[in-house]
Amino acid sequence: MMEGNSTAGSFTPAQQFSIADLVVVVVYFSLNVAVGIWSSCRVNRNTVSGYFLAGRDMAWWPIGASLFASSEGSGLFIGLAGTGAAGGIAVTGFEWNATYALLALAWVFVPVYISSGIVTMPEYLQRRFGGERIRMYLSGLSLLLSIFTKISTDLYSGALFVQVCLGWDLYLSTVLMLVVTGLYTIVGGLVAVIYTDALQTLIMVLGAIALAVKAFNEIGGYPNLEEAYLKAVPSKIVPNTTCHLPRADAMHLFRDPVSGDLPWTGMTFGLSVMATWYWCTDQVIVQRSLSAKSLSHAKAGSILASYLKMLPLFVIIMPGMISRVLYPDAVACVDPEECARVCGATVGCSNIAYPKLVVELMPSGLRGLMIAVMMAALMSSLTSIFNSSSTLFTMDIWRKLRPGAGERELLLVGRVVTVVLVALSVVWIPILQSSSGGQLYIYIQAVTSYLAPPVTAVFVLAVFWPRANEQGAFWGLMAGLVLGLARMGLELVYPVPRCGVPDRRPWLLADIHYLHFAVLLCAATGAVVAGGSLLTPPLPPVQLKNLTWWTLSRESPQPSVDGTSQGPPDGECPPFWARICGINAVVLLCINIFCYAYFA
């Protein structure tokens, strides 16, 4: 469907893609598979701990790179640049807010997780509260969230990239990438994922910086950006409307709490709720930190990832804005027929901002490298999601159904689950393609804000409030789920109206921004958990040992998956490095606050 539209008139990619580009892509992928195979040979991956937790022996630099790469999939490259093109720099808040959550992860949550000796997040809640139903529910929810928000959006954006650059069919490119990705996830386990992530992060960052420099040169440097952006208007407009005009507050991070597209109240409070879910309780991320050699390595990994998260404003979001300046008719189209001709979506084409920049500005050879990097970004976030989802299913669901399953069976099930996830995601692509709204990134954030806040509330209370118990937590999660699904259902029934169409949505949608909804949902869940816990008997103190912030064991060695202790106790980590981590964290916070203040 999109194939016919996308190559008509807007770009003729096949001619621009040279032999040099093809060679680069092939070499890059061979290198990738080689790194995957080399690293899997180093660790015994036929044990559960080796396959799922990389033998708990990772140093800080691959962890930091992997944390960054897992969160910066190709969906984020395309989504951040697209939202930047559509609305300016406010979307940077989603990246910079991660600093606080990452520090909380390393200083607060990881010590609790290590002390409780767990492999998956649902397993932590089961140990903390007892009972099976919370663990089963959370595993199911995480699998659903990964199919709807992570796997499908990454696949869609990766395929969109290949399609814009090569003019290949959307499905052909998707299937090709899946095969390569699936192969080395299934073969290698977590070590393969973490080392290939480190390689890809390096190339992603360098490629993105090179493209950013070239893009700024095109418009004559950063000082001209604001003026040029405010003039970037498409030639075909919808009469009597203002939606073709760039936002006047494009260069401000903090926007009006009532009329802003990303209100500052939501970006401060609502976003913190979602960031805490993503960075501190999401299997994909926490699994990286739990594979660290020691607590100091986990902290240093978090700090490295936070420094890297400061980059996207300059290397993804601003280039997205420049893409609108250079190609306003394609990137900023508002007329439905024109948009359908350019990219096959009537709601808008801001998603093509980044791929368009790559195809138009990069010299041949480098263009191949950039495309390889995008595919790599896609593969890195997919491998990490596949690996973590198969861990969840195997450890939390399969072990319950078959308590006597041996190690061999668990590893086999983990690999089968990966194949099933791949199949489901491919089936979901046409649905996502037809419903892909104007901005991919906003779709991801909105879906997250309906499903994640209850989980945040329960984890925060589990760690900090010893009185919270199983009944309270379970009914809190259920209440949160009902409220979240209600809002999500309304969202599907009443989509955001197109340019020039009056807004007739119910007030719950029109007046309550999804980021504000996240705060309300989190608070409501917290209230139900607190009420439910106070009305039922408390947990015995014995059951809380090592499981909350107040009952941590300060000196215990790290337990491994099969119950034997291994790895250095954190006490043996030299105090010098602990101090370095602390100083770096303070410096990082200062840089973060300065940047916020400068762009506010």
Secondary structure: elements and pairs:
Elements: H1 2-6, H2 13-16, H3 19-42, H4 48-53, H5 60-71, H6 74-87, H7 93-96, H8 98-116, H9 121-129, H10 133-166, H11 170-188, H12 190-219, H13 225-230, H14 264-281, H15 283-290, H16 295-309, H17 312-326, H18 328-331, H19 336-343, H20 353-361, H21 366-401, H22 407-435, H23 440-451, H24 453-464, H25 470-493, H26 507-510, H27 514-535, H28 541-544, H29 575-599
Helix pairs in contact: 3-11, 3-12, 3-21, 5-12, 5-15, 5-16, 5-21, 6-10, 6-17, 8-14, 8-16, 9-10, 10-11, 10-20, 10-21, 10-22, 10-23, 11-21, 11-22, 12-17, 12-21, 14-24, 14-27, 16-29, 17-20, 21-22, 23-25, 24-25, 24-27, 25-27
Looking at how many chains there are and whether they match, the oligomeric state comes to single chain
Structural class: mainly alpha
Main sheet record: none
> For the residues shown, what is the average pLDDT?
79
Q: Number of helix segments?
A: 29
Strand-residue proportion: under 5%
Low-confidence stretches at least 5 residues in length (pLDDT < 50)? 1-15, 556-571
**Shape by Cα distribution:** globular
Q: How far apart, in Å, are the first and last alpha carbons? A: 42 Å
Helix content: over 70%
Radius of gyration: 23 Å
> Got a strand count?
0
Helices and strands, in order, run as: HHHHHHHHHHHHHHHHHHHHHHHHHHHHH
